[in-house]
Structure prediction request, 149 residues.
Amino acid sequence: MIDMGVRVEFYENVGQVGEPSKGYLGALERTEGYRAAAVPQVGTYLMAASLRVVDRETAHPLPGPVQLPVRSVEHHLVPEREGKVPVWWDSYGEPGPIVVVHAALGSSPADELLRQMVRQYVADGWECYGPDGSVLREYGLEARRDLGL
Prediction:
């Protein structure tokens, strides 16, 4: 099994694989916490339900289709010196891939379901961020504050 992370980038309009998405709104990211039989390749699909962080009855699912195409795969390497990770290395402790998918929120994503979705992901250890003024950024900061993180 391969340990990997996932980043869901949200856009106003999602292009086809190989085409740019437009209107970046922010992202949810977890750099670890998922296992897979293999690292998905660009163009293959992830089941959106596998990114659910709570049970089916209380989950606020990611917006968009049931299957999300992989847009890119980032491999995070960890330097090793004399068999150990150097003390100056302040990033990942273990090497691993991060699979990136895109989801559409539309031009006005501010609603209570989105707020609740962000809260459940933040509670499960995901980072939520976005550009200044982004609803995703504001909801992420709000969730961290409310959860005492």
